[in-house]
Amino acid sequence: MACASSSAGWARLIHLTLLRGETNMPAFLYEATDRDGKHHAGRVQAENLPAARYRLELQGCSEIRFHTDPRTEAQSHAEGVVLAEGVTPTQEMAARLTRGGSLADLRSIYAGNWIVWLPTTIWALWSLYAGPPFDVVKRLSFILAVVGLLFPLWAALPSRLYARMLDAQAWARWDELIMLCRRARQLRKFFRLGSIQIDAEFRHAAAVAAQGDLRGALAAVRHHGTTLPKHIYLGRLASIYGAAQDWQGMADLQAEAVELSGRETLEIIDHATTLAWRLGHTEEAAALLEEVRDTEKTIMAEAYFNYASGIVSISRGHHAAAVEQLSLAADALGASGNNALLEYMADYTLAHLVLALAGQGQIALARSLLSGVLPRLKAFRDLALTRRCADAVLGKRQGQ
């Protein structure tokens, strides 16, 4: 399971505004209603989510919704990345939730970098309006205007590349992902990529593992075992085992990450999902989910919890409960931005919703959902889940 919020806008915000540094405590991004009934976004520093909620409630906030989970903050801190001063919570929320195509991205890039190109462009236009002779000063204005207009496009290269990497992985285009990760390494000559570079190395390893070379993939990222916190490193390794479809190896690493993290909620949910879906260990997964049922969760963590719970409910034959849980997960994923990996998760959530709906006898709706998610299942060659869904909509007995 991927836990990332990396829309094109968010990736752009990472590249343009994240700098190396350190913080004493995580700064959780939240939305809430204040004492006057006004809705606002903000950041609050605290040791964990319950402490963050307590601080906000002391300030009179209600209807609090968190968008930053502790694992993401821990990973960012381990990679030496923090938000630069001047990035407001509202801007961060907009970047996370941004939607639109290339034109919208281009408009946002130039709007966010107006200080670079607008003054030089105005100067060049004034020089052009004044007309000849074009002396050295006027020629300089033209040169600076061209540089200013090209700079936002140049600065956006890493974030656009990162967005393409996410899309390639979300559709199992492994050759393309390897090529894009190599380009990211080449960009190190011109950009300080920070966390994007680290992420690219693990995604490259996942692609290599998916193509059959798990040993080589693990060797390529082994050096990060001494630079990242152990539980984060093991979690990233687990995703590589998942790409290789070594589900037992993935589960073993996740189990170790759970213990090393102090039994953090997201690590437990990840492990439970693998146990319930890939290994069929329903009761073990259910026990893990029960452990974190009442813990403070971000919106995304709640979505992943409902997804895992829905898989457990399907295995137990509780299809009505599964429909409710998976529908909640799909709604949250669909409302969380234009992120290729979240769209991947949404499709797999809907694929399991097909099973739950068919179990309730809602065959027509299940068949309609299945037609929408089949391209993703085919891309990942997920024959087991595809067969289960096909059998379900045809009224055959579902196998686990």
- Calculate the terminal CA-CA distance, rounded to whole Å: 20 Å
Major β-sheet profile? 3 strands, antiparallel
CATH first level of the domain at 292-400: which class? Answer: Mainly Alpha
Structural class: mainly alpha
Provide the residue-averaged pLDDT: 85
Count of DSSP-assigned helices: 20
Strands ordered across the widest β-sheet: 3-2-4
Q: How many runs of DSSP E, i.e. beta strands?
A: 5
Write a compact overview of the structure shown.
68% of the residues lie in helices and 6% in strands. The chain is mostly helical.
What does this structure look like?
With 400 residues, this protein is mainly α. Among the domains are: 8-102, no CATH class; 113-155; 292-400, Serine Threonine Protein Phosphatase 5, Tetratricopeptide repeat (Alpha Horseshoe), CATH 1.25.40. It is built from 20 helices and 5 strands. The strands form 2 sheets. The chain has a 3-stranded antiparallel β-sheet with strand order 3-2-4, with helices on both faces. The chain has a two-stranded antiparallel ribbon with strand order 1-5. Strand 2 and strand 3 form a beta hairpin. The radius of gyration is 23 Å and the shape is globular. The chain starts with 7 loop residues before the first helix and ends in a 7-residue tail after the last helix.
